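Lab notebook, design round three. We kept the backbone fixed and only want residue identities now. Task for the bench partner: fill in a sequence for the structure below.
Input C-alpha cells:
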C-alpha cells in the first residue's frame, strides 16, 4: 500500500499526465461520502449489484469484483444483470450465482425488494437497463453509482462518476483501496477487475490507459490475476461459428467510404441466425474497420428483434458519442459509443450514409 501511494506523490515535473492523474487520484471518492458508506457497511447489509443491459467485460468484471469484495466483508450480495452476458466471460469467478432478470424475473424482483443498498455499475442512466430499468428506478433502496460515462442521472444517493477512468473496474479497485481494504484484494477480485480493465481498454491500448492504470494492473497481478490465462479465456475462446462469422463480416460485408474515412459493416437477422449468432458474437467486430489505414470512423449495424443496434468507434478528435447521441438515440464514450434505430436495417444504413457529407471535414485523418 505504502509503495503505491508513495509512487503517486513522487515529484515528476517532466510528466504532466502523471501529475494530473496523481492529483485526480486524491480527489476521487471524497472522504465524507466514503465515511458514510463505511458506516453503513460496518454491519451486514443485503446488497444488490447491477449493471447495464448486454453486460460486457467491464460491466461483469467490475460487478463481480465488487461482489467478491462485499461478500468477503460478510454482506449478503446478489448480482442481478438485465439480460445475459457473452459465453467468453463465463469462466469468471462468481458467474454461476448471477441472477439474469430476463430469465428469472421473480428472483431478481425479490432480491431487489429485499435490498437495503443497490450498487449501480458501468452505466449512467436507468434507461441503459432497458426493461429492467423501472425495477431499479422504483426501488426505495439507496443507490450508489460507480461509473465512467458522461452525464450521470441525478437519482443516486452516492454518485462516484469519473469519466477519465478507463474502466469501471479501475474505479472498483480504487474504491476498495480508498475504503481502506486493499489487504482484502484476492485472486477472485483481481481476475475480475483485470478483465474489466483489459476489455474496456482493448488490451491496454486506448488513450484512457494511463501509467497509473498499469500500476493498478501490476497490483492486481500481485494479488493473483494470471494475465496469460485471462487473455486466453477472453480472446481465444470463440466458437467455430463466431470465427467464420467474423470472416464473413470482413470478407463480404465490409464497406469502405474513403472520402469520409469511414468503414461500415451491417448484418441482417437472417445472417445472424445463419451463423447461429449468440450473445457476444458480434462484440468487437466494429473495431476491425478502424484497423484500416486512413479510417477514422467505423460503424457496425446489427438487426435485432424490433430494433437495429449500432456500435460506433472513432479515432482522434471525432466524437462517436456525440454522433450517436445526435442521430441514433445513443451515447457512450468519445471514441466508443452505441445507439439504436427503429426504422429498417436498410433505411438505417441509408440514413447513416446520408449523414456522412455533413462530417466530411471532421472525419479527416
Ligand atoms: P458497444 O458498441 O460496445 O455496444 O458500446 C460501446 C459504448 O457505447 C459502451 O460504453 C456503451 O455503454 C455505449 N452504448 C452502447 N449502446 C448504447 C446506447 O444505446 N445508448 C447509450 N447511451 N450508450 C450506449
Ligand atoms: Mn465500462
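Proposed sequence:
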Amino acid at each position: 500500500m505504502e509503495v503505491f501511494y508513495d509512487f503517486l506523490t513522487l515529484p515528476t515535473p517532466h510528466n504532466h499526465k502523471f501529475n494530473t492523474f496523481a492529483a485526480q487520484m486524491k480527489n476521487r471518492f471524497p472522504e465524507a461520502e466514503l465515511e458514510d458508506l463505511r458506516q453503513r457497511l460496518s454491519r451486514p447489509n443485503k446488497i444488490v449489484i447491477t449493471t447495464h443491459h448486454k453486460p460486457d467485460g467491464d460491466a461483469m468484471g467490475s460487478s463481480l469484483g465488487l461482489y467478491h469484495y462485499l461478500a468477503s466483508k460478510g454482506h449478503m450480495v446478489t448480482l442481478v444483470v438485465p439480460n445475459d452476458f457473452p459465453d467468453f466471460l463465463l469462466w469468471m469467478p462468481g458467474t454461476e450465482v448471477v441472477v439474469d432478470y430476463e430469465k428469472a424475473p421473480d428472483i431478481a424482483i425479490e432480491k431487489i425488494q429485499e435490498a437495503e443498498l443497490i450498487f449501480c455499475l458501468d452505466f449512467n442512466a436507468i434507461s441503459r437497463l432497458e426493461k429492467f430499468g423501472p425495477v431499479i428506478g422504483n426501488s426505495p433502496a439507496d443507490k450508489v453509482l460507480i461509473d465512467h460515462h458522461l452525464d450521470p442521472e441525478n437519482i443516486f444517493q452516492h454518485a462516484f462518476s469519473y469519466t477519465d477512468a478507463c474502466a469501471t473496474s479501475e474505479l472498483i479497485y480504487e474504491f476498495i483501496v480508498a475504503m481502506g481494504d486493499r489487504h482484502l484484494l484476492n485472486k477472485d477480485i483481481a481476475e475480475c477487475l483485470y478483465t474489466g480493465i483489459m476489455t474496456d481498454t482493448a488490451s491496454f491500448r486506448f488513450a484512457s490507459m494511463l501509467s497509473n492504470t498499469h500500476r493498478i494492473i501490476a497490483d492486481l497481478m500481485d494479488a493473483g490475476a494470471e494475465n496469460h490465462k485471462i487473455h486466453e479465456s477472453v480472446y481465444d475462446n470463440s466458437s467455430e461459428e463466431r470465427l467464420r462469422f467474423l470472416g464473413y463480416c470482413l470478407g463480404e460485408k465490409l464497406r469502405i467510404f474513403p472520402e469520409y474515412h469511414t468503414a461500415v459493416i451491417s448484418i441482417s437477422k437472417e445472417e445472424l441466425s445463419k451463423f447461429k449468432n449468440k450473445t457476444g458474437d458480434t462484440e468487437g467486430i466494429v473495431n476491425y474497420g478502424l484497423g484500416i489505414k486512413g479510417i477514422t470512423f467505423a460503424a457496425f449495424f446489427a438487426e435485432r428483434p424490433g430494433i437495429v443496434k449500432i456500435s460506433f468507434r472513432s479515432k482522434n478528435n471525432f466524437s462517436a458519442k456525440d454522433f450517436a447521441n445526435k442521430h441514433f438515440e445513443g451515447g457512450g464514450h468519445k471514441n466508443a459509443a452505441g445507439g439504436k434505430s427503429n426504422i429498417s436495417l436498410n433505411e438505417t444504413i441509408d440514413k447513416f450514409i446520408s449523414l456522412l457529407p455533413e462530417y466530411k471535414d471532421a472525419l479527416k485523418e
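Keep this in mind before ordering anything: Confidence is low (pLDDT under 50) at residues 1-25.
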